[in-house]
Specification:
Distance between the termini: 72 Å
Strand content: 15-25%
Strand order of the largest sheet: 4-3-2-1-5-6
Number of domains: 2
Radius of gyration: 24 Å
Structural class: alpha+beta
Helix content: 25-40%
Number of helices: 10
Shape: elongated
CATH architecture of the largest domain: Alpha-Beta Complex
CATH topology of the largest domain: Creatine Amidinohydrolase
CATH class of the largest domain: Alpha Beta
CATH superfamily of the largest domain: Creatinase/methionine aminopeptidase superfamily
Largest sheet: 6 strands, mixed
Order of helices and strands: HEHEEHEHEHEHHHEEEEHHEEEEEEEE
């Protein structure tokens, strides 16, 4: 640079990031919906730390966040001002490239172990030294910084009341937007196609480890970014030793049931699908049991409709199972929501009196341990104004699939 040259001015934030998670309007809708609920509860702000909630409000899908226990990721959403995000400096570039946050004024970075100092300073500058701030303190919510950090934060801001905002977060995320539904549909179809191909390749003599490897390879080929949970159970009499779903080198034998329950991660959303087949020839007893669970599932799907509550589905299931003289595995519910997480709120369980609404996405899978195998079939579906729409395709066959 010559003496006559002036240094270049600092680059200004672009009007749009090159790789946005969603259009700006999607986040504006989320903020508006959150603020409406915040106003009803007389909250001045939300303090968000849990990974899925943080990403829901920012669009910042950090690869570091899921496993980082020393550096919290925080967004503060005020009732009447722009949100402020607190991250480590190495995340700043990611935020610039993928979010609609103005990195010149909406992003604060902190030094290692000094996050509370920066957070207190930011809250004070936002006028949040006093008032009511909603936090992840209730049902299905977790603070992703330590209890000690949270206690110290409250002590340093004694006039700011930290209250539970779990119902706000659960309400917001339980009904999906059209853009979220598209991602969930794509993720569900990836898994359904994957399991269809895996079952075509399974043969006696393979191990559960071999099957797990097939799932991972084929899911990547089908477009999945990652495998979200992978539970593989194989065997015959599941009532003696029980069922293990962690991948082990058990050899598949003729007559075994093979059940694969898994999901695909795709752009911050996941799916949850399960299929059951029999290695070799299936017995009539196995065929009858499989037919029973498929018919039971479809009866449950019909109950997942606007006007019903979540528990109505579970009550119907209990009645049908009792009428058949059978008993489920007894996990406490027969289904759950799917979206950024799986499982997520709400549950299809007795006691879940939440009204079923259009835009909710569920997986439903009452399952059974028997003396001749484990039986589980799970589809993912969307609640519509007129009923439900399968997101998973192809769906499980109506007849038990014989493998190998």
């Amino acid at each position: 640079m010559t003496i006559d040259q002036k240094p270049a001015q600092a680059a200004q934030p672009a009007s749009a990031p090159p790789y946005p998670d969603f259009p700006k309007e999607e986040f504006e809708r989320r903020y508006a919906a959150a603020r409406s609920l915040m106003a009803e509860q007389h909250l001045d702000a939300l303090l968000i730390t849990e990974e899925s909630n943080y990403t829901y409000f920012t669009g910042h899908r950090s690869v570091q966040n899921p496993g980082d226990k020393v550096r919290p990721y925080v967004i503060v959403l005020p009732l009447r001002a722009d949100p402020l995000v607190f991250v480590m400096p190495f995340e700043e570039g990611h935020i610039k490239l993928t979010t609609w946050l103005d990195w010149t004024r909406q992003v604060r970075t902190y030094k290692l172990f000094k996050h509370n100092d920066t957070l207190v300073e930011g809250l004070q500058e936002m006028g949040l030294s006093a008032g009511r701030i909603g936090c992840e303190l209730g049902r299905e919510q977790y603070l992703e910084f330590s209890y000690k950090d949270f206690t110290q934060l409250r002590e340093r801001l004694p006039e700011l009341e930290f209250v539970d905002a779990s119902d706000i977060l659960l309400t917001l995320r339980s009904v999906k937007s059209a853009l979220e539904i598209d991602r969930c549909r794509t993720a569900a179809r990836i898994v359904a196609r994957t399991l269809d191909r895996v079952f075509s390749a399974v043969k006696p003599g393979m191990t559960n480890v071999d099957v797990a490897r097939l799932v991972r390879v084929i899911m990547a080929e089908e477009g999945g970014e990652k495998v979200h949970r992978l539970a593989i159970a194989s065997g015959f009499d599941m009532t003696k030793a029980g069922k293990i779903s962690v991948t082990v080198p058990r050899v598949l034998e003729a007559g075994d049931t093979l059940t694969i329950d898994t999901g695909a991660g795709l752009q911050g959303y996941v799916s949850d699908i399960c299929r059951t087949g029999v290695v070799g020839r299936a017995s009539q007893q196995q065929k009858d049991m499989y037919k029973f669970i498929i018919e039971l599932n479809h009866k449950c799907y019909e109950q997942v409709r606007v006007g019903n509550q979540c528990e109505d589905v579970a009550i119907l299931c209990q009645q049908e199972v009792a009428r058949a003289g059978r008993a489920t595995q007894g996990v406490g519910r027969i289904g759950h929501g799917v979206g950024r997480d799986s499982p997520e709120y709400p549950s299809l369980a007795v006691g879940e009196k939440l009204p079923i609404l259009p835009g909710m996405i569920f997986s439903c899978n009452p399952n059974f341990l028997t003396q001749f195998g484990f039986f589980n079939s799970e589809e993912e579906f969307l609640v519509t104004e007129r009923g439900y729409e399968f997101l998973s395709s192809p769906q499980a066959p109506h007849e038990l699939r014989e493998l190998g």
